[in-house]
């Protein structure tokens, strides 16, 4: 379990690794190629996350991974292909994370919170998350089209908020789609401010503040009539 200044979540963020399978011949060569590609991708992600797209070159990646530029070009024909692969890898992980969170049997609203908890840990620990987010924010500098940021997140959280609404988890005045947009904006706003002001060092604490302020306001309160601790008043 990861502990980050008030945010405690299981390691639900996927970090797939290609395992040696004992294959021989063509299968072994394919396995090695896949391991090499993954190694290049993660090294590139670390550099993109630290320096940004414009300040990263294929030579930087080759030096980091201790390969020749030709070896990198064999797997990725140019820097744009590397950027696309990093963002694609980021997007491929969210369904896996959602499935893991769903497997915990949480309510829809608590699933929303746990998804943000998992994303917080990923922002702090995983170069793919850090680089993918930075590349999307720098998409005007990238010479290829990348998916617009925040759209998939907003759609995912909207889906969960609607489920929460249908199950009576949201306060009566709360519109689930509005709640989703506000939650996504608050989360990524906190991340952006933390990143720019403190190198993301205090992001877990900033997210905890957002979580503990926002979600109690969204959650439906138990009926007073059903509250056994409700004080008895006499007229």
Would you spell out the secondary-structure blueprint of this structure?
Blueprint: E1 2-4, E2 7-9, H1 26-51, H2 58-65, H3 69-75, H4 79-102, H5 108-125, H6 127-137, H7 151-166, H8 176-198, H9 203-218
Antiparallel strand pairs: 1-2
Protein name: TetR family transcriptional regulator
Organism: Kitasatospora aureofaciens
GO molecular function: DNA-binding transcription factor activity; transcription cis-regulatory region binding
Question: How would you state the average pLDDT, rounded?
Answer: 86
List unreliable stretches of 5+ residues: 1-6, 16-21, 224-228, 230-235
Number of domains: 1
Q: How far apart are the first and last residues' alpha carbons, in Å? A: 52 Å
Order of helices and strands: EEHHHHHHHHH
- Outline: elongated
CATH topology: Tetracycline Repressor, domain 2
Counting H and I runs of at least 4 residues, what is the number of helices?
Answer: 9
Major beta sheet, strand line-up = 1-2
Q: Which structural category do the helix and sheet elements fall into?
A: mainly alpha
CATH class type: Mainly Alpha
Helix % is: 55-70%
For the report, how would you describe the main beta sheet?
A: 2 strands, antiparallel
Q: Could you state the CATH homologous superfamily? A: Tetracycline Repressor, domain 2
Oligomer: single chain
The radius of gyration over CA amounts to: 21 Å
Residues in β-strands, percent: under 5%
**How many beta-strand segments?**
2
Keywords: DNA-binding, Transcription, Transcription regulation
DNA-binding region: 57-76
GO molecular function, one term: transcription cis-regulatory region binding
InterPro entries: ArpA-like, CprB_TetR_C, Homeodomain-like_sf, HTH-type_TetR-like_transc_reg, HTH_TetR, Tet_transcr_reg_TetR-rel_C_sf
């Amino acid at each position: 379990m990861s502990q980050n200044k008030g945010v405690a979540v299981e390691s639900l963020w996927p970090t797939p690794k290609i395992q040696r399978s004992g294959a021989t011949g063509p299968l072994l060569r394919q396995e090695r190629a896949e391991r090499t590609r993954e190694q290049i991708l993660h090294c590139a992600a670390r550099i993109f996350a630290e320096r940004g797209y414009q300040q990263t070159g294929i030579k930087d990646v080759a030096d980091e991974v201790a390969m020749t530029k030709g070896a990198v070009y064999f797997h990725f024909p140019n820097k744009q292909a590397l950027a696309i692969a990093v963002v694609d890898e980021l997007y491929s992980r969210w369904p896996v994370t959602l499935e893991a969170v769903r497997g915990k049997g949480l309510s829809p609203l608590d699933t929303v919170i746990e998804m943000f908890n998992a994303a917080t840990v990923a922002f702090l620990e995983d170069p793919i998350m850090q680089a993918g987010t930075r590349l999307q924010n720098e998409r005007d500098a990238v010479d290829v089209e990348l998916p617009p940021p925040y759209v998939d997140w907003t759609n995912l959280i909207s889906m969960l908020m609607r489920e929460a609404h249908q199950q009576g988890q949201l306060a009566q005045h709360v519109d689930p789609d509005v709640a989703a947009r506000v939650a996504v904006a608050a989360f990524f706003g906190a991340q952006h401010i933390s990143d720019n002001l403190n190198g993301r060092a205090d992001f877990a604490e900033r997210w905890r503040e957002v979580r503990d302020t926002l979600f109690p306001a969204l959650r439906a309160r138990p009926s007073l009539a059903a509250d056994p601790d409700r004080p008895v008043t006499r007229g």
